[in-house]
């Protein structure tokens, strides 16, 4: 059997993949005991996913996930169901099941689906590590940024493979942006014709915060586990016909195509998420490389930036890169598949 770096790393305790199931690395807070919505709100997820899956690109992007009309699909770690809805529209009259551990997200997604005419999405509360479905229940199993937040991704992906039918597809997408990548603020203030005073300090604090983010909340903008391993992970589970695709996405509030209503929302986009996260840390959760004073400083600078932006162009953009690794479950199980 081909020995992947993934397998070698997963063997050792103390490696990222050897940590406990949902505890550890969350600043002592097991993931099962707090709501993901408390660190990434429904609004933040919905806005960012709408920007990433722009309508004119959607068909191509969903193709990366092996999605075709008529399929029965499972979406693992579906959050408020934004990505799940795109899947549902693409597979109709097939159906998508969204699964998430967070009851608040699932309730929100269910309520939203109930208002959709001819909706083909249903939602369940469940754990990615123990999917509540029979073997071979779905034609395709997807996860968009649902695996990267886990401390034992291999265990969850093995579950995704189990519930996928032979010949079906399993795909996982993760952001690969991070410190030094294309992240919060495309510029640090110095390159702008009219920079926000304090932009450089804010950018520096954010950079430091982000670089330690893996310690506070695994998976968000950090290297809690190497995203480059996505591909090796699928291969190590005996899948075949591997594909790796990527696309970049940016949000610029002052993009001339952005209407007045959306503009205000987009101007808040980057900072909303940051504010929520910093407030969560200030509330005594998680851990951070920054002092309490520095965390307060981020909030104060963010508020000053918001007021300043009311009558100045922002010249900001927020962007990232998503990678989709997908593969086919063999028709006949191999020795490596359980
Ligand atoms: C970054 S969010 C992504 C949500 C959604 N896929 C999206 O892109 O909008 C990560 C999601 O994983 C969920 N999650 C975390 N641990 C989980 C687990 N063990 N089982 C199922 N879902 C989990 C969280 O509740 C959260 O909704």
Protein architecture, described:
The protein is α/β, with parallel strands linked by helices and about 350 residues long. The chain has a single domain, classed as Vaccinia Virus protein VP39 (Rossmann fold), CATH 3.40.50.150. Helices cover about 35% and strands about 15% of the residues. The protein is built from eleven helices and seven strands. A seven-stranded mixed beta sheet has the order 3-2-1-4-5-7-6, with helices on both faces. Helix 5 links the parallel strand 2 and strand 3 (about 120-125). The longest helix has 23 residues, at about 260-280. The radius of gyration is 20 Å and the shape is globular. The two termini are about 15 Å apart. The model is unreliable at about 1-30, about 180-185 and about 215-225 (pLDDT under 50). It binds S-adenosylmethionine. S-adenosylmethionine (SAM) binds near residues 82, 101, 127 and 145.
């Amino acid at each position: 059997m081909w020995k992947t770096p993934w397998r070698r790393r997963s063997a050792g305790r103390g490696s990222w993949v050897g940590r406990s199931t949902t505890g550890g690395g969350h600043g002592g807070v097991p993931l099962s005991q707090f709501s993901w919505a408390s660190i990434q709100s429904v609004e933040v997820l919905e806005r960012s996913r709408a920007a990433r899956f722009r309508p004119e690109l959607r068909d191509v992007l969903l193709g990366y996930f092996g999605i075709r009309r008529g399929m029965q699909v499972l979406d693992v770690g579906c959050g408020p169901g934004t990505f799940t809805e795109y899947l549902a529209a693409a597979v109709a009259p097939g159906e998508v099941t969204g699964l998430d551990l967070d009851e608040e997200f699932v309730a929100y997604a269910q309520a939203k689906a109930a208002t959709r005419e001819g909706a083909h999405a249903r939602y369940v509360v469940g754990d990615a590590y123990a999917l509540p479905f029979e073997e071979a229940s779905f034609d395709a199993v997807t996860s968009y940024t649902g695996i990267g937040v886990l401390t034992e991704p291999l265990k969850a992906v093995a579950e995704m493979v189990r519930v996928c039918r032979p010949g079906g597809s399993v795909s996982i997408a993760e952001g690969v942006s991070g410190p030094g990548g294309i992240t919060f603020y495309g510029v640090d203030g110095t390159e702008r014709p009219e920079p926000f005073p304090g932009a450089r300090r804010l950018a520096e604090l954010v950079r430091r915060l982000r670089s330690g983010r893996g310690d506070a909340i695994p998976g968000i903008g950090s290297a809690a586990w190497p995203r480059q391993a996505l591909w090796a992970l699928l291969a190590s589970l005996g899948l075949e016909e591997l594909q790796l695709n990527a696309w970049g996405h940016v949000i610029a509030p002052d993009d001339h195509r952005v209407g007045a209503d959306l503009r205000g929302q987009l101007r808040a986009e980057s900072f909303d998420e940051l504010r929520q996260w910093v407030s969560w840390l200030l509330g005594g959760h998680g851990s951070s490389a920054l002092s309490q004073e520095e965390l307060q400083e981020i909030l104060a600078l963010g508020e000053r930036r918001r007021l300043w932006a009311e009558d100045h162009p922002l010249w900001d953009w927020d962007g990232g890169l998503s990678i989709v690794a997908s593969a086919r479950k063999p028709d006949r199980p191999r020795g490596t598949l359980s």
